[in-house]
Predict the structure.
Amino acid sequence: MENLIKRTAAIIKGYPPVVALTGSGISAESGIATFRGKGGIWSTYNPEEYATIDAFMQNPARVWKMLKELAHITMEAQPNPAHTALAELEAMGHLSAVITQNIDSLHQRAGSKQVIELHGNNRWLICLKCSKRHRVSQSLIEEIPPLCQCGGILRPEVVFFHESLPHDAYQQAVEKSQQCGCMLVIGSSVQIFPASLMPILARQHDAIIIEINPEESHLTSEVSDIFIEGKAGDILPRIVEEIKRLSP
Ligand code: OAD
């Protein structure tokens, strides 16, 4: 393990620009459940009933029941040492962007500046009738579904299944993936397209892929150059410490 941390630190220093692709596993140590597997959000809520755009349009109140529960959890969660380590890497000039599938805003709250949100965010709601954007607050989502002053139903600024990704975020993620010298894939099962495309694009453009996860993914044997088995909150701070040791 120590050897892998040292190799990773040297690669991060030696193969700029470095980007990180993150998934829900990076926020697990902040108390936010991941999506798949035991205890995952999709084991409580069937995504066909709660996470497609059709399900939302057919029954916004039912989908808002789940969204409200998740909103409370994500609003109360705090960034963990993994988020802080990525913010620190960026501040040190060793990380050009975080491409995230997460909507919890914990990267920004930890201090990351260049955050590309592929699946939207938990900060804004949009009126389905007049398109006005509303900043999320506990009081706004007290009654569900939340309503705009015009009477329209508010939807979250997140990407439901069967919807396109935000165009600019997708374009930026593709560019960053094609241009990076190293991609850190952290806390994702990398099963959802097109986020799952990013490590493939990076690899096709000769980037070194380093995966950090307690479990292997389908990338591990085929795409990843280095797999560090462990929790992001344990591993990433150790990588940052090693980089500091290399460049006092
Ligand atoms: P998954 O639930 O598919 O995967 C979570 C990953 O995090 C797994 O590989 C875990 O092994 C890993 N993990 C768990 N704890 C960890 C820790 N402490 N440190 C590091 N890794 C850890 O979630 P995602 O890959 O994020 O999309 O899922 C991607 C997308 O699928 C989500 O953005 C969401 C979902 O459906 C939409 O809703 C559009």
